[in-house]
Amino acid sequence: MDLILKSTGCAAEIVIEQKAQQENIILDAVLAFAHRDMKNDKYLQELLSQCEQVRMFSDRYFTGCYRRRNEACIHRADRLIAVTSPTEKGDLLCAIETTQTLKKEVYIICIG
């Protein structure tokens, strides 16, 4: 299983495009926490409707929830595909380091 993380925007769009061309691609979503305005976000609802499975890591926000969600996903994945920018800081870099520490494949796509 590949894990795709993107620092800005939405990696789901990339997967949805590829899924149209390759039937064996599965899109799952693991949200860090339940956002209050999630049900009113039509863009997010459209993306989630195209997922095979949607899971919520936590029912509320807490410091480090994104990092914990990423680590849980990394442990389940075979490799990480990180879509990032040259100025990236924070959780995505931690995800890359965690994946490397676990001796799993990391592919970095730098945009911008």
Description of the structure:
The chain has a single domain (2-110), classed as Rossmann fold, CATH 3.40.50.450. The protein is built from 4 helices and 5 strands, in the order E-H-E-H-E-H-E-H-E. The chain has helices at residues 11-21, 42-49, 65-76, 91-101; strands at residues 2-6, 28-31, 53-56, 79-84, 105-110. A 3-stranded parallel beta sheet has the order 1-4-5, covered by helices on one side. Strand 2, helix 2 (42-49) and strand 3 (53-56) form a beta-alpha-beta unit. The mean pLDDT is 84.
Layout: helices, strands, pairs:
Blueprint: E1 2-6, H1 11-21, E2 28-31, H2 42-49, E3 53-56, H3 65-76, E4 79-84, H4 91-101, E5 105-110
Parallel strand pairs: 1-4, 2-3, 4-5
Helix pairs in contact: 3-4
Quick structural summary:
Helix content is 38%, strand content 22%.
State the main characteristics.
alpha/beta; 3-stranded parallel β-sheet; 22% strand; globular
Secondary-structure element pattern, one letter each: EHEHEHEHE
Biggest sheet descriptor: 3 strands, parallel
Question: Class by helix and strand content?
Answer: alpha/beta
Main sheet: strand order = 1-4-5
- Our count of helices gives 4
Q: Give the terminus-to-terminus CA distance.
A: 27 Å
Look up the CATH topology. Rossmann fold
Tell me the strand percentage band: 15-25%
The rounded Rg comes to: 14 Å
**Strand tally, please?**
5
Shape: globular
What is the class in the CATH system? Answer: Alpha Beta
Q: Overall mean pLDDT score?
A: 84
Please tell me the total number of domains: 1
Helix fraction?
A: 25-40%
CATH architecture: 3-Layer(aba) Sandwich
Which regions are unreliable across 5 or more consecutive residues at pLDDT < 50?
none
